[in-house]
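Archive maintenance. Older records in this collection stored only the sequence; we are now back-filling the structure field for every entry so that each record is complete. The fields below show one back-filled record exactly as it appears after the update. Entries are processed alphabetically, and ATP-dependent zinc protease is next in the queue.

ARCHIVE ENTRY
Title: ATP-dependent zinc protease
Organism field: Marinobacter sp. MMG032
Length field: 208
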Amino acid sequence: MRVINRALLAAALILPSTMALAAESEAKNDQRPPETLGYVEWVVMQDTSLRLKARLDTGAKTSSLHAVNVEPFEKDGAEWVSFQIPLGDHEDQPTEGELDHEDVILEFERPVERTVLIKRKGAPSQKRYVVMMDFCIAGTTHTTQFSLTDRGKFSYPALLGRRFMRDDNILIDSADAFMAEKECEYMTLEELATRHAESVVEEVDPDA
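Back-filled structure field:
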């Protein structure tokens, strides 16, 4: 009677899969040459043309985005989340002088990718929702996971972590900022407010 070592069998099954994933990751990085960016850069959220300052932090694995009024809901049997980005918390959007940043609050809805539990010293643990977001940095569009959290008291509304740097072959110069040679297209505060108002009208009344 032949006895099969289950541990060896499991290793034999897992190893090819692991090697395939590693090869895929290496191939992706080989296709994109390494790019060096500063520890702070401009990013533009692709679906809104919202421009924000982002800190590139090798000490964080997952990127994070400033968001308030984060509320989960169900859509088509899947878990989604709604959230707002009040532009008055970080006045990064170029303006023509007609509006104040305090007057503009952007609203978003995204499917939930996963949730994380953040342990905080001297405070209760905090549940955070993670969503996928498209953004542009240094003239190139990327997609990565962002945890949603109130960053109103931080200097930068967005933080880009190691997951983004690893997946897109990004190197960080911790001694310099705003090193990107290419820019991303963005809107002024007034253009952003007008576009957002039009999208809200379309959602409420598609025939308007």
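Update note: The two ends are 75 Å apart (CA to CA). The domain at 35-204 is CATH 2.40.70.10 (Cathepsin D, subunit A; domain 1).
Entry marked complete.
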